[in-house]
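DM from R.C. (forwarded with permission)

"hey, sorry to bug you on a friday — could you get me a structure for this? deadline for the figure draft is monday and I only need the backbone to look sensible"
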Amino acid sequence: MLRLLVLLLLAHADGSLFLPPLEGKQGPEIALISVQGASSPVEGYKPAAEAIQKASPFKVWVGIPQYLFDLPELQFAAKVDDILQQMEKAGMKADHKVIMGHSLGAVGCQGYIAGKGQGKMDALVLTGAAVLRKYRNSTKFPPTLTLDGDLDGLLRITRQAEAYFHQVIKVGGADAPGMDRPVVLLEGVDHWSFSSGDRPSNVKKNDIQAEVTVEEGHAMIGEVIADYMSSLFGSDAEKAAAGAKIVEAVKKTGELVEPILAAMHLEGYHNLNPPCNSDYPTNPTCQYAKYPDKSLLPPAGPPKPMPPADCTCGSDWVANTAANMVAGFEKTPASQTKLVTKDAFHDVSDVRPFHLPHIFEPQPGTACSDPATCVINATTVSMPIYDWKDDFDVGLWPITASEFRTKFKSREALQQAAGLQDVNYTATDELNTEICKSINQAAYDWALKTASSKARDRFLKHGQPYVFVEDKKSGFGITGPTWIHDALSFTPSQDKKTVAVQSHYFPLKNKNLGDVSFVQTVGYHYCKLLSPARAMEWIYVDGLKEFYGTRDDQIQIVV
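My reply, with the result:
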């Protein structure tokens, strides 16, 4: 066993390298440690390192340690110490130390900074990576730059939009005094733009094509990192000038992620602000009507911890767009009826208590006397479903909701409440295969319209557009309605040029204008909904990978 280990170690001889400063550079001496990504050869990081040295006015030493099997989780601290010692033996007298990691190397850097490396580095640079959620509120980090490309297929732009929200917007904006974790995205840059040479298999499989050349990408990267170091370690004049450039880069990034954040807010994305609990309201802006809290068993107690005061009340998309589309008041005598809807996030399987949509005004058993002046106050219940793989927080998999499991009052119930007579349940709900479909089409249309013109044009040229097909009615299984687990489906066409999206729906006929016991389920229309944020994520990331990725069978394009 020992012999085998020795042979393996010899087969992976240390290929660590360092670059001494360029001649003619002035100012402080900087030690920059560049940590490789998984299966990413150290030699590939040399051109980007040289671009940083060229762009910086300082004497920058760059050390690129090679880890065993090119996996930076192994020997992390020891290799950092070793490359620093090598540079010191070569004459380095560093005034400041900066550690920079790419991809998995950036994950390792964060663990190092929070552990054995705490207090040893003056700055941290994350490339093709983000500050991990578990470190979002850590006080152990030095000033930290997050630098990525908008076409990174492994650390997706949606994850960087989330980072921007927390690291920039929530601290007061790009030029706020307390903003010590700037987020900068470079247009046209992909995950591999931070390195060079042949892509590792995982990168090749998942990245999106860069729209700048390798050399252009390295120059862009070098300039931002050089400016960041100048903003921290330069003279007062250098700090001011370089800091202003970083602020402008952060503001430009804000423009890039603005459509994505708008979509996330419509969804009620759980990693911006956590969801509220309407049973135990903590956000006074929600103005929840008290849900009928009938329960077969003693109700569950309050959540621990309680949601913060800025928790997300529910999905604005469901409340302000989808609910009105379900009602279908247009082209009826109730076209002037006003529907006011509050959405709440709950598990749709809850029975402690039951969480069901409800019409509060007019009261159950009554209806408006005049549809033209009618105001209906109602609630909906939504359960956003998130991919469990995002718990790893690596940015590779979609982070937005894969579907909404949403319970609405039925079109029949809403139109009856508005005062319409002889509403035909068969036509409004039972055999209506268009309601959920039309809402999902609207979410996709909104995302296409709201996306940046560059992202939209790229997707329309190279992406896989969604097409929406008729809703499929769910039935009953052993445990009840199958709708809960009948997932929103995404089916590529045979030539993969389009993806068909199909919702499942489950309708229930109304009775006595809803004035029945809670054990009678009447007047509902359940939908599997496409989140506008998932549609946006498809346009910016996942919908590009089939025809605009970096596999060997995909054409490399520079636009």
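R.C.: lifesaver. Residues 316-547 form one domain.
me: no worries. The longest strand covers residues 375-385.
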